[in-house]
Amino acid sequence: MADKNLIGKWKLVRSDENFENYMIQLGIGKVGRAWRKKFKPTQIIVKSDNKMAIRTSNGLLLHMTEFVLDEELTEKTPKGEVVTTTYRFEGDDEQTLVAVSNGSKHGILKNERRVEGSEMIHTMTLCDIVCKRYYKKVGEAPPYEKIVPAKVPGSEAEPAADAEETEEKQD
User: Which pLDDT tens digit goes with each residue over 119-167?
Assistant: First the structure.
């Protein structure tokens, strides 16, 4: 199973030197950049059939992304931009979860998650800037239903993912 190694709870242990440049390219202000460099987020990656979700939190903010593999979806970036994103597994061994987002005024956003050894490497690319963040597995993933809130039929409610937008407005 291509996704088996990615499923779990991951804690950031380090970022490379391009993280600052990546955030600048995204238009994140000085305060927002300092804040993001300080915190070590946790990502929980879960899967049920062809549906997946990635929940990223740092103790204060929560960002939830739910998607169906190989289907385009419309979502908001943490900066509040509306983009269209497609998630799929790629590579010779289909071990890399790739998300490509179009529609950002900053360019095409590409996120890749791949397990190498005991680390998950999250590679973020924007224009010619490539940033890598390294995560250590700290636990197993809970069941999909525990991470993804049930949607009430007819409800347009989104997961509690917009908290980061509030922080951005303070930059």
Answer: 999 999 998 999 999 999 999 999 888 888 766 555 444 433 333 333 3
Alpha-carbon distance of 124 to 150, in angstroms, equals: 30
Residue bearing tokens 């391009």: 18
Q: Under a CB-based contact definition with an 8 Å cutoff, are residues 161 and 62 in contact?
A: yes
Global pTM reads: 0.82
Q: List the beta bridge partners of residue 119.
A: 116, 136
Q: What is the pLDDT of residues 11-26, one digit of tens each?
A: 999 999 899 999 998 8
Backbone angles phi, psi at 163, to 5 degrees: -60, -35
- What is the sign, positive or negative, of the torsion defined by CA atoms of 61, 23, 108, 93? negative
